[in-house]
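Sample entry (795 residues):
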Amino acid sequence: MFKNYLKVSLRNIMRHKGYSLINVASLSIGLTCCILMLLWVQDEISYDRFHKNADHIYRVIRETQNGGKTDHYSAVPNPTAPLLKEQYPEVIDSVRFRGGYKDWLVQYGEKSFLNDRLGVAGPSFFRIFEFPFIKGDPNTALDHQQSVVLSESTAKKYFGQEEPMGKVMKINTRDFKVTGIMKDVPHNSHMQLDLVVPIINAQEWWGENLEDWNRDFELHTYILLDKNSSPGELNQKIAGLVKQHKPNTDTRLYLQPLKDIYLYSSDLKYDNFGLGNITYVYILSLIAFCILLIGCINFMNLSTARSGIRTKEIGLRKICGAHRTSIMKQFFAESVIFSFIALFFAVLLVYLLLPAFNNLSGKQLTLFGGTGNLIIILELAAITFLTGMIAGSYPSLFLSSFQPAHILKSVSRGGKPRGGYLRKLLVVLQFTFMVVLIFGLILIYNQLNFLKNKDLGFNKENILYFWGQGNFVYRINAIKNELLQNPDILAVSKSTPPIVELLTTTDVDWEGKKPGESVTMSPGLIDYDYLKVFNLEMAQGRFFSKEFPSDLANYVINEAAAKAMGIESPINLRLTFRSSIPRENYEGRIIGVIKDFHQHSLHKPITPIVFWIHRGEGIINIKFRPQNLQHTLEFLKNKWDKFVGGGHPFNYEFLDDTIDNFYKNERRIGSVVKYFTILAIFISCIGLLGLVSYTAQQRTKEIGIRKALGASESSVVLLFSKEFLNWVIAAIIIGSLAAWYIMHSWLQNFSYRISIEWWEFLLTGGIVLLIACVTVAYQFLKAAQANPVDSLRYE
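Predicted structure, serialized as C-alpha cells:
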C-alpha cells in the first residue's frame, strides 16, 4: 500500500511541477526556520543541566522591599551559606561563590598574563558542582588559602608543556599553588571560569568580613538539597533567616533552581553572569512555528484550490469501492512525503545557513554535533511527520468527503464551489502572522534606536577606562598632572563609571528618618574630577572640592536618593551610610544633589546613590579628544609601563562600547527577527501567488467575457483583487491586536521604553497591503491582458 501511495504522490509531483515547487519551497523554508530555532532553543534550555545533581542544586535569592516596590538580588548576606548547612538538615552542602574577576596580573616565571575569568569559591564548590577534574582531587582542591584550580586551556596557556600540578604562580603578586586541573567549563554553564581560588582570599584582598550580616559583597550562595526534601518547605523555613540577625530588615530569602538561573534571572540585581531570557525563547519559538505554519497553510490552500483536478480520481476510487479512510490515508501519505522531501532540502539549507545564523545569534551551534545527535534526529523526524499531518489534514478531510454523484455534476453540495471560505480563512491567518512579524520588527528597531540615542544623563563619548594598578592608584594625583600635560587628554578621574551595577545596602540613616523606614541605596566611589569627565550636573548644593578638607567625610547624593528619603532639600542633613565598602567615617553631611543619570542599562530604573571621595583602588576614567586617538593610546601605554611595569599589560575599554554591549541580546534577536520576517513574507507571497494564479486560471473564461463586453483591464484587476484584499485587511486588523499584546509584553523588559504609536500600525498595515496588492494584482493583470479570443477558447 505504501508503495502505491509513493507512486501516486511522485506522479502528482511530476505532473504539477509549479505547484509542487511552491509546496516544497514553503515547507522547506518553514522547516529550515524550525530546525534553526530547535537548535537555538535546545542550547538555551541546556544550561547547567550537565551537573550530576542539577535537579537538587539551588541558589539562594534575597527579596527586599524598597520604597513600595520589591527588588530581587542574587547576592545574599555573607554568612548565609554556612548557616544554612548548619541549621537545616535537609541542606547537604552549601557554598559561597563569586565570578567575573578579570584583568588580574598572573605570573609564572618570566611570563606574565592577564587572567580571563577568575572566581572565588568555598571549599565545597567542586563537591556541589560537577566540573570534571583531569588532575587533582575536587574534594580538597580549595582547602588551602593559597591553592588555585585552573581550567585545561588556561593551564596550557600559563605552563605550556610543563606539568602544572604543584607549581607556584602569582596572582596579583601573591603566591598560589596549583592543586587541580579541571576540564574547560562547558559553554552552557552560567558560571564561566578559568581560575578558581578559595573565597577566604576575599578577606585580605578587599577587607571583606565573611561573617558580617550587614555585608553581601555580591556573593552567591548555592545549596545541595537532599533528594527527599521539598524546596517549598525549605523556602518557608529560611524566609525570615536574615531578619533573625538583622531585626530591622524586611529581607526575605527563597530558593531558585539551578536549571532556572540562566533563563529566569533577568530581573535580578548583582547577577554578573552572562544570562539568557526566557521571553526570547518564547518569541523566537513562536516565530519559527508561525513560519512553519505559513508553509502548511500554503499546502492546504493549493490542495483545496486544485481539488477539482482530482475529483475524477476520487470519484473513480469510490465507485470502485474505496472507503473514505483509504482516500484520507492517500492524501496524508502524499503530504508526509512532501514534508520529507522538504526536510531533505531544509537540512541542506541549514547546513549552508548555520554559520551565518551562529554569527547572528552569538552561538556555536552544530546540526549533528555533540551527544544530542539521536535526539535531534528524532525531533526532526517527529516535526517533519507532524508538519505533513498538519499540512494534509484539511485536504484529506475535504477531498475524501466528495460524493460520486456530486463529482459527476462537477459541483459540491449546494451547487457552490467548496473550500472557498476556508481558503480565505487560511489567507487571513497567514497574513496575520505576517502583520505580527513586521510590527514586531518595527517595534524592536524603534526600541533599539531609542536605547542608542536616549540621553543617559552623562557623556559617554570619547571616554576610556581601565582598572588602576600599583602607582596608577596610589600616586594617581601626581599621575593625573602628567597625563593632563597631553593636550589630547581633557580630564582624568579615579571613580566608578556609569556602567557598573553598584552594591546596595539598607543600612542608611538620616535626620528625620521615620522609625521602621527602609530604603536601599548604593555607594558611588568617586574623586574630585568625576563631574568633569562625565559632564554631570548638580541639581542642588555643590560638589566635592579640595578647598573643603571636611568633604572627605561628607556625601553627595543623586535625585533618586533624595526622592527615596522623601526630602525636597536634603542639603546639610546628617547622613549615616554603612556598606560593604570600608570607610573611615560613616557619618557625614549631604553637601549636594547630582541630577539623575543612568548608572546601568536602561533595563533597570535609576536607583538611589550616595557618593563619597574614595581613596582606595578603583577604575581610571580618561576623557580624550578623538582626533589623535592612536597617539593618545600610545602615550597612555608609555605612562602605564612607567608607573606600573612588572609585565602588567595595558588593557582598556571604551565606555560607549561597553554601554552598547548592554543591548547585544536585543540586537541579536532583532537581526534574527528581521531575517525570519523576510522569510515569512517570501513564503506568504509565493503561497498567495500560487493561489491567485490558480484562481485566475479557473476564471479565464469569465475574464474574457468581461473584456469582450467592454471591461477595462484595470476594472478587471480591481474586481478580482478586491476579494483577496478584503481578507488581507481583516488580517491586518486581527494581526495588529495580536502584535500590540505581544510587543507590549516584550517592552516590559525595559524600565525605559518607547510608546506604541498609531503610525506604527498604519506603517505595518501599509507594508502588508502593498505586498498583497503587488502579488495579487500582478497575476490578475497578466490574465486581464490576455487576448479575449484566446480566453474564450479556454476550456
